[in-house]
Amino acid sequence: MKIAIDLQSCQSESRRHGIGRYSMAVVREMIVQCGAKHQIWVLLNAQLNPHTLAEIRAELDDILPAQQILAFQVPTPNDASNSHQAKQCAAEYIREYFIEALQPDVLYITSLFEGVNDHATTSVGAFSQQTTVALIQYDLIPYLQQDVYLSNQEIRYNYLKKIEFLGKADQVLAISAYAKQEVEQALGLEPQRVVNASTAVAPHFIDQQMTDRQNATQAAASLASFDLEPGYILYAPSGFDVRKNVPGLVRAYARLPVDIQQQYPLALVGGVHESTKTSLRALARELGIVGQLVFTGYVSDAELLAFYQCASLFVFPSYHEGFGLPALEAMTLGIPTIGANRTSLVEVIGLDEALFDPDDSEQMAGLIHKSLTDEDFRQRLIRHAKQQSQAFSWQKSAAVTLAALEACVQASDKQSVAWRGLEPDSHTYTRLINALKALPLSDHDKVLVANSLAHNEQVLRQA
């Protein structure tokens, strides 16, 4: 089976976040598991950050031949701006033609919802109807809360366009059982079209667990620049937008006895917009706990690991998650972890005793207090964390993904018919040209289109 993998998520802004880390980790494991059984081709975007091309090639160098990593070209700029809509459509057509010309048995898209602020180009069925497509879906939070996340009309247009593409995919893999249910119910997809592939933590969270005094000392030393000592309540690093319920956590923290607050400050790890920080500080002053809140800002992976290792308790009060990776990261390191009894956190944390109502600050505070002071309960959380975290692995996620792709191909009657030789297939190529001609492109845009077609033809000839 020939599998094409769209890995633009490791080139776009997503590469700095969980989506990028997920994409690279699961793709590496898929390549390893395939061996000689399947042939994998990785597809990148030549118009995105050029440094990422070399980085990804280096990342995969030990397991994938360089000639099986291809970079297509599309006309730019083609981001979410209304002024770029025609060029965005042209980019979608050209990318899909490029993929069809490669003639994969299946295309796997590691992140469909890209291209808002950059030139990442993703689509399903915009031009090609003959490519079998599977994709991973992380969550539908913007779709379900459009008044919060889609108030900008350009972003809304592009997001809903991606939703239409999502509905055309032959197979949808979900990041959690909850995300699977969310896709089925919100978009009306048949259950057999959606598979829970789950996820896991980055390898260094397993490889660098704190196992001796030297590691503990090193982790504590890395906190010095944040004016923080080991032994605190941790929230990290999941963002500060409304659904994360950080104000709810602050209110619950304020309900703790003063001696507990003095012993366990609340560390809020991760980048936060200045206005949000100001609002949280104002809330803390109102509650009389401003001196107990520590904002770290962005931290490196090594610093994040240290923050987890030195925490007395990890609290995840979010209302809505596609998965909730920070909770799993903390549990993998054996940190007592509690969280909201909402969405995917129920399955990730996997212990009813460790869940609270995120709208009930008194209940949240009570569980925080119990987790810090009841030693029997605390040890139960630690034992559970280590056991529960073993249920998630990249090996499992990759195996499920590959099995889903195999089943998808077996069930599909699509067959790529685009050019795959020295001359374009007359019908498909003519259809592409006619589709491009129908777009309101400027003369300059037409030159960019011609350049992209020429570049892609050269890449395919060498493939």
* Spatial extent as radius of gyration: 24 Å
Mean pLDDT level: 92
Strand content: 5-15%
Which consecutive residue ranges, at least 5 long each, have pLDDT under 50? none
Q: Write down the overall geometry.
A: elongated
What is the strand arrangement across the widest sheet? 3-2-1-4-5-6-7
Distance between the termini: 17 Å
Measured as a percent range, the helix fraction is 40-55%
Figure out the total of helices.
Answer: 20
The largest β sheet comes out as: 7 strands, parallel
Using DSSP, what is the number of strands? 13
- Assembly of the depicted chains: single chain
Look at the helices and sheets and give the structural class: alpha/beta
Characterization of the model:
Helix 14 links the parallel strand 11 and strand 12 (337-340). Helix content is 49%, strand content 12%. The chain has helices spanning 18-34, 50-60, 85-102, 141-144, 146-149, 153-168, 177-187, 203-207, 213-222, 246-254, 258-263, 274-287, 301-309, 325-332, 345-349, 361-373, 375-389, 394-411, 426-437, 443-462, and strands spanning 2-6, 39-45, 69-72, 106-109, 133-137, 171-174, 194-196, 233-235, 266-269, 293-297, 313-316, 337-340, 355-356. The protein is of the alpha/beta class. The strands form two sheets. The protein has a seven-stranded parallel sheet. A six-stranded parallel sheet has the order 10-9-8-11-12-13, sandwiched between helices. The model has no long low-confidence stretch (mean pLDDT 92). Helix 3 packs parallel to helix 20. It is built from 20 helices and 13 strands.
